[in-house]
Specification:
The protein has helices at residues 4-24, 70-75; strands spanning 27-30, 34-45, 54-64, 88-97, 99-103, 105-108, 111-114, 127-128, 138-141, 146-148, 155-157, 164-166, 176-180, 183-195, 203-208, 213-216, 221-224, 228-233. The chain is mainly β. It starts with a helix and ends with a strand. A hairpin with a 4-residue loop joins strand 16 (213-216) and strand 17.
Length: 234
């Protein structure tokens, strides 16, 4: 017969184990030292749906948006002299390659997770980093929407079915975001509506990558977070 005291002991033991297991795994976001993207197309739009876009430029260009010159580099992606007059533009649509080159060492739990140059990511596989050594540049992939296992960073199913959920339905800086094929497409709202004057505008872009890489320390799974982006046409 199990006494009341023994029952109480088992309850306390199980509760303690639960707390231990929950505190063992940790997740965090941090600042990469390199966050290089490949821009493919930039378009001006009259609304969020971007039904009648004007293509500012369409070419492949590498840009490290963690660098101090990122805003200037991206702002010079395409000339602005041919923007149609008499059209009010409120949004800007950017098409990026889904493969990023990232260097990062992020504090998580009681240690660090680092990019290790393994280039092991894919559409359904997060980057698995290292807990020791120096951070090395690595190709990271903007993974598919879904839920990823903490033990290996592999997609296990739909959002909510595993440990690390990835969804692009509600981006924090962009107003909309879609990921498919080789591309990621983001639509940003301009800081104010722009209509061409006699002078060609300057594109002013500000990036904040302070939380642009996420990690989970069970297997050192690493994933791409959305940076904060502000865009103006002046």
């Amino acid at each position: 017969m199990v006494t009341h005291s023994m029952k109480k002991f088992f309850i306390i033991l199980l509760f303690s184990l639960f707390i231990f297991e929950k505190s063992y795994a940790a997740s965090a976001s941090g600042q990469p030292t390199q966050y290089q993207v490949t821009m493919k197309k930039v378009e001006l739009c009259t609304d969020l749906a971007c039904t009648s876009p004007f293509v500012l430029g369409e070419r492949s260009m590498l840009a490290d948006i963690a660098s101090v010159s990122a805003g200037t580099d991206v702002g010079a992606y395409a000339p602005t002299t041919n923007i149609p007059a008499g059209v009010a533009y409120s949004h800007l649509r950017v098409t990026l390659d889904r493969t990023f080159t990232v260097t990062a060492s992020i504090a998580v739990g009681s240690g660090l997770c680092r990019t290790d140059g393994g280039n092991n990511a894919a559409a359904t596989q997060m980057t698995v980093g290292a807990t020791s050594g120096a951070a090395v540049a690595e190709e990271m992939y903007l993974v598919n929407t879904g839920s990823y296992g903490a033990s290996d960073g592999t997609r296990d199913g739909n959002v909510g079915s595993s440990n690390i959920d990835m969804s692009y339905a509600s981006p924090s800086s962009a107003k909309s975001m879609t990921v498919s094929g080789d591309n990621a497409v983001l639509v940003y709202e301009l800081s104010s509506t722009y209509q061409k004057t006699l002078r060609a505008p300057i594109i002013k872009i500000q990036f904040n990558t302070a939380t642009a890489v996420g990690v989970e320390d069970t297997a050192c799974s690493m994933y791409i977070n959305e940076p904060t982006v502000t865009i103006s046409l002046l």
